[in-house]
Amino acid sequence: MITQPQAMATPTPDPDEERRRIQTARLLAYRDDGPLVHALSGKLGKGLPPVPATLVALLAVIAVTVVGLPDKGPLLLLPVAITLLLVLPTAPRDHLSRFDWLTPPLLRGTEFLAMIAIGLAAGAPKWLLFVLVYVVGYHTYDTVYRTRQSIWPPAWVFHAGLGWELRLLLIGAGAALGWLTPVLAVLTAYLFVLFAVESVTSWVRLDKASAQAGADAEQDLEASPEDALEQATGEAEKG
Questions:
Q1: pLDDT above 70 for 219
Q2: What are the angstrom distances between the C-alpha of 11 and each of 15, 19, 22, 68?
Q3: Which residues lie within the region annotated Disordered (predicted)?
Q4: Domain annotation for the chain: domains and CATH numbers
Q5: Were 124 and a residue from 24, 101, 119, 224 both cysteine, which residue would form a disulfide, CB within 3.0 to 4.6 Å?
Q6: Mean pLDDT, residues 114-122 taken together
């Protein structure tokens, strides 16, 4: 006797495993790692615990800022080197420990402090530093707001945004070479256009999709019972 093949039951995902997966994805998105971190993370072994390493990096950058940086020369790269050496090895971790949610704010604070310390020491325009911090901060806020609604930014925007590591490297190198102001100007303009255009187009696309879904649902509700029966009968005859 020939029987109909039984459809394979879709396995129900483990709720705890799904929660851990989403938590990891969110925290990694909040870190805003760039192409350099992604290229090296697979070669760093198990990596360092994220919170202690990032906290030490922040405290070290604070100490360097308090002591003071020169107005030119390779020593302006010191906050960048500290951040890279301590934070980059944390990338391979799954960020599932109890306090790992502290990693993104600690990392963002370290990045902003390093930017400001290098910029002020090298005599960069303060308003330009403020705009750069604002642009990166907006990108972080946009990422957090989207992911909390299960709307994930595309992966390419994190690579195109250079990540915290390449942003700091560009700023540090520009300061050490005496080109910080033009580097800041170009970097700020580039990131502003990138993050603003990507964010606006994504939200507009989502709004259009939501409006279309609402219109379709409203049309279905407004359909008369006779129309619904006729449509169902027609579909059955076609089948």
A1: no
A2: 12, 16, 18, 58
A3: 216-239
A4: 16-238 (1.20.120)
A5: 119
A6: 96
